[in-house]
Amino acid sequence: MPGLLEGQVALVTGASRGIGAATAEAFAREGAHVVLTARTTGALEEVEGRIHDAGGTATIAPLDLTDGDSIARLGVAVAERWKTLDLLVLNAAMLGSLSPVPHIDGKEFNQLLTLNLLAQQALIATFDPLLRNSPAGRLLAVTSSVGAHPRAFWGAYGASKAALETLVLSYADENRDLGSLKAAIVDPGATATAMRARAFPGEDPATLKPASAVGDAIVALLKSDFESGYRLEVS
């Protein structure tokens, strides 16, 4: 029986591990061909291998989203091969150092905003035409609760996610009445990932939900007729 995403093309950033990898594998199980992007080639190959072993298909595209025209080159490659993009998941992000706002390191903050915000806008701009070529293009951006609910010492990361949410929700509103393209925000909540372990080194990961639960929740969202601008909070 064909999967929900049979014949579709999905691009997932930050797909070498954690929520990105789990989402990519969930998409592949539903029949999508998944383009996997991240900086680490070896880790991407491991995800690609698991997808192929499970009967799915994937293509890896190792790149640094903050490196010059890497996003533009990726856009050209996807357009030449598939002409359209059905799903774009903006998942790649860096945590940075947790510190009081007056002590935020300017150089690191610049790097964080470049990846967590500026690269995300570049991805939207690059793939917007391909998403519009799809009969039901979907853009999903992964956020954090600190973007909506500021917390001490999380100012830098939280500010980047708050800005990302504003960007994506503006894009969702711009497209609300223009066609079938929709955008949504995904707040995964507490999940057993490497980033979470860095932020909470004393936490027992066994008490957290696995990244696969977030991938499954995203697939479930795609099965629904959600409104553009929807916010999914994975409990």
Please provide a written account of the structure.
The protein is an alpha/beta fold and 235 residues long. It has one domain (9-233): NAD(P)-binding Rossmann-like Domain (Rossmann fold, 3-Layer(aba) Sandwich), CATH 3.40.50.720. The protein is 46% helix and 15% strand. It has 8 helices and 7 strands. The protein has helices at residues 18-29, 41-53, 70-82, 106-133, 145-148, 155-174, 194-199, 211-223, and strands spanning 9-13, 33-38, 57-62, 87-90, 138-142, 182-187, 230-233. It has a 7-stranded parallel sheet with strand order 3-2-1-4-5-6-7, sandwiched between helices. Helix 1 packs parallel to helix 2 and helix 3 packs parallel to helix 4. The longest helix is centred in the middle third of the chain and has 28 residues, at 106-133. The model has no long low-confidence stretch (mean pLDDT 96).
